[in-house]
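Weekly puzzle thread! Below is a chain. First person to post its structure in token form gets bragging rights.
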Amino acid sequence: MMRKQIAAANWKMNLSLQQGEQLINDLLSKPHDLKENQLAVFAVPAPYLMMAQEKMGTKNRVAVAAQNCYSKKSGAYTGEISVEMLNSIGVKYVVLGHSERREYFNESNQFLAEKIDISLSHHITPIFCCGEPLQIREEGTQNAYVAAQLKESLFHLTSAQLVNVVIAYEPIWAIGTGKTASSDQAQEMHAFIRAELAHVYGKETADQISILYGGSVKANNAVELFSQPDVDGGLVGGASLIADEFVAIINALK
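Winning reply:
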């Protein structure tokens, strides 16, 4: 079975509605050759989810993602977005545990485990982000750090649940800093993550899970990064806001 190869765009808190519409129109008008095992996912700001869903919802191999959701089904949580709301507009993916959510909004591994559970229970695929800050990388303890993130947020799941999760490894020291992990560093961590999954769930399950790389992915480094055996695509920030750049990244999928 071929693992799904995914190019995921994370727009973060950028663009007006009009700019967002223009970007989607530009992207959809450019030739990209998404094969059967490939998917382009667009994580747009919450106010634009319906617009993006209307434009892309019917297209093959293209999906819309929310950038976050809350851990409860409904209730008095002003300003939050529930998985039921996402379901009701047809959104099938959600980015969870992005390093910015962890860092600025203090999201813990335990809190993210709750978000993972509620997403899966509503048939929404989580794109679960993990990764280490610079200090941890400099200390050489990145493997233990990432292993703890996986264990505390994902390893309560059954195999049948886990295969519906996409993992995105983000070396936090390489996000928006212009530093990129070398393709060897990326492969090394992706192989470690897959080995951790295999240790708990077996090789067959681990081999089904897409692991994306997120850390300054650009058109000029995507081919080399995606050619690594355990790198199944990318979670792309800044470069996903430029149509030509992101199409080149989509076309770099293996």
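Puzzle host: Confirmed. Bonus trivia for everyone else. The first strand starts at residue 5 and ends at 10.
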